[in-house]
């Protein structure tokens, strides 16, 4: 008499969003599905990276706009440190720029919060099968942008600023001092000031206020 196959372990999910109410709603959706279990929650990208390194998780669901470190920054960091971890971006932004940045950051899916109750579970299951999940309309954006660039003889656009400069830009816009930023990123305050000067020069901006406005337009901080 053959024994029944052992029950498959549920997919262990790390959920990161800076709004507790959103996390509660998403958790209800995921925990209500067989085979999915939220085992860790984070309120910002930096906390998500730290939790992923100390908690046994299979899948990270990351919001885009979060304090300290955005979901896209966290996705890049997690892709480098934990290449086996599947990553989904859950966002309110139906935005081609964020969509392409998410793919470049290593995410395997991009889900809009407005239809999370319909798409998120399917996206989680697709991620665990190593299949991409794109929100409705993203395929059209992907193909259109690719064909436009091929037609113009261009490759994918280069980043205007480096990842380190982006980290510093976000923290400056959140009101942190150079000393605080240095402590958060484990670099000297003088190095922070050098990066900040480079940012002003690269972006053609004059001061912290203009850097903050740029960070808002780039989706690094919420207005």
TrEMBL record:
Residues in Response regulatory domain copies: 12-128
CDD domains: LuxR_C_like, REC_NarL-like
Signal peptide positions (record): none
GO biological process, one term: phosphorelay signal transduction system
Domain of life: Bacteria
Keywords: DNA-binding, Phosphoprotein, Transcription, Transcription regulation
SUPFAM superfamilies: C-terminal effector domain of the bipartite response regulators, CheY-like
Designated name of the protein: DNA-binding response regulator
């Amino acid at each position: 008499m053959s024994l029944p196959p052992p029950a498959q372990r549920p997919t262990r999910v790390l959920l990161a969003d800076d709004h507790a109410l959103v996390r509660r709603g998403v958790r209800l959706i995921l925990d209500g599905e067989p085979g999915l279990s939220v085992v860790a929650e984070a309120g910002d990208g930096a906390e998500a990276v730290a939790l992923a390194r100390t908690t046994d998780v299979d899948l990270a669901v990351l919001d885009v706009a979060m304090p300290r470190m955005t979901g896209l920054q966290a996705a890049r960091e997690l892709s480098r440190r934990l290449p086996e971890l599947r990553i989904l971006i859950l966002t309110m932004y139906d935005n081609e720029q964020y969509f392409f940045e998410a793919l470049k950051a290593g995410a395997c899916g991009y889900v809009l919060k407005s239809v999370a109750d319909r798409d998120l579970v399917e996206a989680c299951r697709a991620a665990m099968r190593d299949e991409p999940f794109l929100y409705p309309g993203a395929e059209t954006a992907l193909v259109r942008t690719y064909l436009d660039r091929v037609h113009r003889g261009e490759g994918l656009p280069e980043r205007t600023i480096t990842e380190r400069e982006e980290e510093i830009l976000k923290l400056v816009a959140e009101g942190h001092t150079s000393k605080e930023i240095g402590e958060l990123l484990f670099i000297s305050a003088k190095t922070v000031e050098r990066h900040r000067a480079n940012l002003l020069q690269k972006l053609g901006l004059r001061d912290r206020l203009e850097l903050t406005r740029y960070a808002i337009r780039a989706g690094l901080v919420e207005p």
